[in-house]
Amino acid sequence: MPAARRPTSSQLDLFCVTMNSFTRITALLLTSLNATNGFHIVLAGGTGNVGRELSSKLVEDGHDVTILCRNAFLAGAPSRVSSDFGWLGKSFLEKYPGVKLRDWDGGDLLDIVGQDWIGWQDDTLSKADCVVNLCGGFTQQREMATERLVRESLRCNPTALQITVAPKDDELRMISNVAVESKMKRLKLCEDLVSQNCVNYENMRLQANRLEEECDNIKQVIYARLS
Predict the structure, then answer these.
(1) pTM value?
(2) Rounded Cα–Cα distance for residues 91 and 183 (Å)
(3) Is the Cβ–Cβ distance between 120 and 110 less than 8 Å?
(4) CA 7 from chain center: how many Å?
(5) Given its phi and psi angles, is residue 182 left (phi above 0), alpha (psi -120 to 50 degrees) or beta?
(6) Amino acid 208: pLDDT
(7) Pairing relation of β-strands 40-44 and 64-69?
(8) pLDDT band at residue 17, thresholds of 50, 70 and 90?
(9) Which of 65, 54, 36, 101 is nearest to 218 (CA)?
């Protein structure tokens, strides 16, 4: 039986070029498939003004949006029940059927008010192309929610794009004049949790008085990073 011939260097080079081309073509096809079918985008804490504006824009562009909230029933009620919880309303959800609400624990087991929060990681986070953290406030709850998102993303979807959204430092001084330095440190800590643990991330500082413009900026970052 004749001995097997070893491939020449030119043959090996041709093989490598072919495999690299195959890899690039596969990546382009996957990107094209996502662009055609739309992305799966998760908004944590998306029942406020930014979440309302951003989710409607994303759905209009053909993407699916899931909003993680403390109580999906109250967030989707025909009228606002309590100012303590975020609210989008039944009419908004009917107008934008691509927006879905999902209960989650927000990192604080003592603050659970939704009825069906168990399993949000596996049925929502695991399918996300992008996770946008819109959790507001400047208390420890913000840190806990960010840590929860990062930890669960690393467990079930480590390559998803992670975006944190927070006000700029100078604007924070304008909208909140109490314990400003402490709040600034908390925002930086949340950003560090993402940048030090996630491989695919973007920390964004926005101006609250330019809601539509800044939501467009978030949207463009999502598209640029996922393309």
Answers:
(1) 0.81
(2) 35
(3) no
(4) 47
(5) alpha
(6) 78
(7) parallel
(8) very low
(9) 54
